[in-house]
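Lab manual, section 2.4: Encoding a predicted structure.

Procedure: take the sequence of the chain (384 residues), apply the prediction step described in section 2.3, and record the output as structure tokens. A sample record is shown.
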Amino acid sequence: MNVDREDVAREMLQKDDLIPYEVVRVRPIPSLSRFAPMLFQPKPQEVIEFTRGLAALIRSGIPIREGLTILRGQGVGLGMKEIVRQLIAAIEDGSRLSDACARHPRVFSGFYIRLLRVGEATGRMPESLQQLAETLLKGKAMRDKVKGALVYPAISMVVAILVAVILLVYSLPAIVNLLAEFGGELPLATRLLIEVSEFVQAYKMVIFIVLATVLVGSWLTSKTVRGRRVMDRYFLKFPIIGSVLMQSNLFNLTSTFGTLLRSGIPSMEALRLSKDSLGNVILRERLDDIINDVEGGTRLGSSFREYWPSPPLLSQGMITGEATGNLPEALNNMAEYYEQEATRTVSGATELIQPAVILLVAGLVGFVAIAVVGGVYSALDSIE
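Recorded output:
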């Protein structure tokens, strides 16, 4: 435990029947994570391991502060160690764990804080932490599936573009000069490739500036409210990708909403907290309309049918859950269904995208090969 005064330190040691020979003030070594916390932001997996570990320690009878001290000593990242250090300091000052975590909204969401407060109020902190860990783990698994479906084609396209740039800027000019020395009539594919190569050579700086401007402009646009809204609307309409994003967001919504309701949180508060689980601005706006409508007296299922009609299973599941008085169970069933649908959609998208990317790369390389080989044979014919 850290203290600021020597007399307080001596008093605490004496309470433990310890007589200090000398008390020396120790200045903590500055940590990079304190000066630049954004560079050491804890990863989702670190938050999951922290939550799961704290649940196990508290269930074993270890107090929260001692549990946090143990977790801080484990091999976690610098960012998470700094967060845990601040949590320990806040608890030593008399704060509750939920209030201490609320000081770090970038790491612990409103959903996380609310479940902690439920655990503190009911005396079931280990259960709340375990429930949090399971929910966070499911959400991370879903995000990993979506990323996995998009990373492979993105890497393949980048490799194809790099191969094309290397061929057009570095390899082809030497071949073009060689073919020009021999003369003769070149095939159409060769002439087209030469024209493209000469264009890239002449305007490569302009092309680079335009591409860099487009990329930077897109990134800056995505940081604005209007730009993010336009991009999210476009992504939802994009073939395959839109379906994957919709299924994953529906899973996040139903899973989070159901978890909060099972924890005893009122439906309106649970619905507001569930909005944080949606990563798409357009879908968040739909949920805002539903929240406003329900606050006006409309039933939840009817509001979903009005403002979120597609897919119809979502609103129908809400209506059925309200009618049977078991909405959390209905949401849990829908979460399982959308998890399976998202997995199936991701697998189907991967099976479709991978051959398309392979054909695109093969077509690009094949066209270059045909153009070069055709030019060589044409040059050999002119020599004869």
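Check your result against the sample. DSSP finds 16 helices and no strands in the chain.
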